[in-house]
Amino acid sequence: MITFKQIDALYWIAELGSFEAAANKLNMSQSAISKRIQELEETFDVEIFDRSKRNARLTEKGSELLDYARDLLERRDYLLERVSAREVLVRRFRLGVTELTALTWLPALVEAIRQAYPKVQIEPSVELSSELFRKLENDQLDLIIVPDVYDDARFVSTPLQSVENAWMCAPGLIGDPDPVSLDVLAGFTVLTQGSQSGTGLVYERWLASHDVQLPKTLTSHNLLVQVGLTLSGVGVSYLPKACLSHLIDSGALRALVTTPGLPRIRYAVLYRSDRQLGLNQNVAQLAVSHCDFSTLLL
């Protein structure tokens, strides 16, 4: 007879990469977690982990068993979520966001989740859109909030607000009056986020569609670094207008009027279509109601 304790042990060893890490996660001894795996191996008469390797590497049968284990744990959580009151639901929730969300409305969303699910353990991750999407694909995250650039039937997508960006620079860097042409901008160093960023990818494609070549670029994967370099007069950059309005109003940054203007960046909540639990759906709706890119927290 297999138990959820054995299945939990298998899942966390595979997830964290070692028996020791899984034992710490489950607040138990390493010998106890090893015993649970031995019990599973005896039940199925197969070797689950390759003992010849230094790390916890699954055998072929172990990988097959892990797939079933994930499904069982998902169904268990679904049952608990549907039958239990929200206040008593205990599980972890792996939430992935980009830097702009983290710097604006993430605290409000986390607080709303805590209010709705007091015992749910929230594990936030702040990374580039491409990395968040990869982790969602690999079932390493439950839900992500990213620019809406992923059209994939494997995922449920809930639209959020859009972000208005503007080309910005330090006052005096560009002497031309508004409106400024894209050809003029191309003559300066342009600070970009790169194609690993959802926003960067959208604007790379947009510039290409307007046949704009940028001979001098600096790529930064950190939004605050991008803002700092722009403030320092290193170059021109596309930045979120609403949350940086205080820098524009104070004269620290100049928001350029360009022809044509930048397209808005629509954000979305994504989660796997094979993981349509009530928690994912409810968090997506909480994100819709709390989404606010207008205020920078720093």
Describe this entry's structure for a reader.
There is one protein chain. This protein has 298 residues and is of the alpha/beta class. It has a five-stranded mixed beta sheet with strand order 2-1-3-12-4, sandwiched between helices. Strands 8-7-9-5-10 form a five-stranded mixed beta sheet, covered by helices on one side. It folds into three domains: 4-83, Winged helix-like DNA-binding domain superfamily/Winged helix DNA-binding domain (Arc Repressor Mutant, subunit A); 86-160 and 266-290, Periplasmic binding protein-like II (D-Maltodextrin-Binding Protein, domain 2, 3-Layer(aba) Sandwich); 165-263, D-Maltodextrin-Binding Protein, domain 2 (3-Layer(aba) Sandwich). The chain is built from twelve helices and twelve strands. It starts with a helix and ends in an 8-residue tail after the last helix. 43% of the residues lie in helices and 19% in strands. The chain has helices at 4-16, 19-25, 30-44, 60-83, 99-103, 106-116, 129-137, 182-185, 198-209, 223-231, 245-249, 278-290; strands at residues 92-97, 121-126, 143-147, 155-163, 165-169, 180-181, 190-192, 217-219, 236-240, 254-255, 258-259, 265-272. The radius of gyration is 24 Å and the shape is elongated.
